[in-house]
Structures are given as structure tokens and as C-alpha cells.
Design goal:
This is Polysaccharide deacetylase. This protein is an alpha/beta fold. The protein has a single domain, classed as Glycoside hydrolase/deacetylase (TIM Barrel). Helix content is about 30%, strand content about 15%. Strands 1, 3, 5, 6, 7, 8, 11 and 17 form an eight-stranded mixed β-sheet that branches. A three-stranded antiparallel β-sheet has the order 13-14-15, with no helix packed on it. The longest helix has 14 residues.
Length: about 350
């Protein structure tokens, strides 16, 4: 007489290694178990757990209190931002950390997340797929704020301001903020210029009136005492790529060189009176067809892909006296909180452009 046994979920060795890496990076074992079950049930190409399955541990995780009383002359401050609130689509959740995973891993390190949001790429359930990417949902962004994080705006549709009419430009900047407030969110701590570089003329004429800061990509840290009109905030975009800019990897060449952990520690760690803003995109685990986060050196095939383990190692190695904050915390520290911004109506802006 044979004994009936219950089959246990099984995963491939490579998948198991990635799951162990997620646990090592600080993702809760309960969430990782959910990921393993989803993979075992559907095979290596399974879509993984739903947003609702990931949201339970995500919303009930640690909460970071607002970072108040920042001394802009003495404190060392770090802000961690998620570019375009990226979630996974083409990769499974054990190959790339989902938006909820990233928020959880940061929260477990007492690091609040600043989400950079394209308004019309965000939905109440599953967000639309744009250019091969899926994005975080409104409930997830509300969860970020509940945890002590913040949201910022990258406009309505990720379009360049210099390609718009004056009315469209106002709607993309000042005009979208009431829509955030209707969802219980304030996005006024930073406007992230879409589709290209920072645009000084629009920062001076419009954006600074209703946003604490305008994003400008920079490899330098910000001196907090020097943050002043027109209120530009330097943001370091974390870049992947081949081992060096001149090398070839994954059938690509000429990419920007991978930003190594050693360089990250040397150039991003803030000193007294400084704030560093580190922006991440896709964070990958293990080894795949277009990335290798296991060998030395780490390499990825595109600029916006980077190894999760290096980000977490950087955060784990921060000096104890570094304060982690959000763009909203920084705005309050320099007198640019929501109630302190003058704002500009559509009528005022159109008149200024005539």
C-alpha cells in the first residue's frame, strides 16, 4: 500500500540562488516563499504573484518616521529615489526586484523611498505597460507614503516641457498637483524633467513656483546651504553597463561603464552639510541573459539596469551618522514645504508668456 504524499514546490538551482539573494538583501522570507510558490506552480516563465499578494507584507512593513530637524550646515543626508516607479514586466520577480520588493528592502533598512511618478502611467490596479515596462500602482504609492516615504512628479505622460504649448506645460507641472492631492498624496517636493535634461528656462518661469525642487542629473552631491533660487536639486542616476565603457558584454558595446560599488561609496556618501540623491531603476538579481550580478565585475546590458546586491551593500555600509530622508523632508528643511510655495495659476502663467 503506497503512502500519499503532498508535493512540495520545487525550483531550478538558478532560481533558488536568486531567492537566497533576495533574502540576503533583506526581503522577508514570507514574501520570498510566495515568490517561490508562484514560480514552482507556473515554471520559470511564470508571471509571479499578483500585486495584491505582494501588497500585504508591503503595507504592513516597517514605517520610517519623517526625518525632521535636518541641520543643513552639519548633517549628512541621503535620499533614495525610484525612477519612474518601475515594476517588473518582462522579468520574473526573482530576476528583478518589484517595486514592492524594493520598498520593503529599503524599509527593513530604515530607508524611506522617494517615488518619481508619471501620472498617467499609474493606475488603481495593474498599471499600463509602456515601452516594455510596468509601473507601480496608486495603492503602492500610498503605501510608500504610509511607510514614511514621498512621491514626486515626472509630469502627466513623460513628455518634454519644451515640446508643449504654455497651457500644456502648466498642466504638466502645477496643474497635475491637485490630482495627487485628491488621492491623498503630495508630489510638490520635486519635479523630474521628462524625456531629457533639466530645462532652466521653465524651472525659473514656472516649476519653482509650485515644486520645492527641479531635478537635474549630476554626479555631484548637493551642498545644502547652497540650495537656493531657482531651486535645482542634483540627482545621481545609478547606471549599469559593461565593466568599462569601452568593453563589450551581452552582445552590446559602447555603453556607459557599470557604476561599481567602490565608486558609489566614494562619490555618493554625503559629507557634512551635503545631501546626495541616489536614483535607481531596474534592480536585478543573480545572472540572466543580459546581466551578471554574480561574477566579478558585475555587468548589465543597459544603463537603467543595475545589480540589487550592490545597492543594498552600499546602504548597509553607510556611516552611522548619515541621515536618510525624502525629498519632502529636504524641502521642509530649506523652507520649501507645500504651504511655503507661492504656486502659479494657469492665468498667471499664460499672462507671463504673452
Amino acid at each position: 500500500m503506497s503512502r500519499r504524499t503532498t508535493a512540495q514546490p520545487t525550483t531550478r538551482p538558478a532560481a533558488r540562488r536568486r531567492l537566497r539573494a533576495l533574502v540576503g538583501a533583506g526581503l522577508g522570507t514570507a514574501v520570498v516563499a510566495t515568490l517561490a510558490s508562484g514560480l514552482a506552480a507556473g515554471g520559470a516563465s511564470a508571471a509571479g504573484p499578483t500585486h495584491d499578494q505582494l501588497m500585504a507584507p508591503y503595507l504592513n512593513g516597517p514605517t520610517h518616521p519623517r526625518t525632521t530637524g535636518i541641520d543643513i550646515a552639519r548633517d549628512k543626508v541621503l535620499v533614495v529615489a525610484q525612477g519612474r516607479n518601475l515594476d517588473t514586466f518582462k522579468r520574473t520577480p526573482i530576476e528583478e526586484a518589484t517595486f514592492a520588493d524594493k520598498s520593503t528592502m529599503l524599509a527593513n533598512r530604515n530607508v524611506p523611498l522617494t517615488g518619481i511618478t508619471v501620472y498617467n502611467w499609474t493606475a488603481d490596479t495593474t498599471s499600463p505597460i509602456v515601452s516594455g515596462n510596468r509601473y507601480a500602482t496608486w495603492p503602492q504609492l500610498q503605501g510608500v507614503v504610509v511607510r514614511g516615504g514621498a512621491v514626486t512628479s515626472e509630469g502627466l505622460n513623460h513628455d518634454r516641457l519644451d515640446s508643449m504649448t504654455p497651457e500644456e506645460r502648466w498642466q504638466d507641472t502645477c496643474g497635475v498637483l491637485p490630482s495627487y492631492r485628491a488621492r491623498g498624496l503630495d508630489a510638490s517636493s520635486m519635479y523630474a524633467y521628462s524625456g531629457g535634461p533639466y530645462q532652466a528656462v521653465h524651472q525659473k518661469q514656472l516649476v519653482k513656483s509650485c515644486y520645492a525642487f527641479g531635478r537635474q542629473y549630476s554626479t555631484k552631491r548637493n551642498v545644502m546651504n547652497s540650495l537656493a533660487d531657482p531651486w535645482v536639486l542634483g540627482v545621481r542616476s545609478l547606471n549599469g553597463g559593461c565593466a568599462t565603457a569601452s568593453s563589450t558584454c551581452f552582445a552590446v558595446s559602447g555603453t556607459r561603464g557599470y557604476d561599481t560599488l567602490e565608486n558609489l561609496r566614494a562619490t555618493v556618501t554625503p559629507k557634512a552639510g551635503e545631501v546626495a540623491v541616489l536614483q535607481v531603476y531596474h534592480l536585478l538579481v543573480g545572472r540572466g541573459p543580459s546581466w551578471d550580478c554574480t561574477s566579478t565585475p558585475h555587468q548589465t546590458s543597459t544603463t537603467e539596469t543595475y545589480c540589487l546586491s550592490d545597492v543594498m551593500a552600499f546602504l548597509d555600509g553607510l556611516p552611522a551618522d548619515v541621515k536618510v530622508a525624502t525629498t519632502a523632508d529636504l524641502a521642509a528643511a530649506v523652507g520649501r514645504a507645500p504651504g511655503q510655495l507661492p504656486g502659479m495659476t494657469l492665468r498667471q502663467y499664460l499672462k507671463s508668456q504673452s
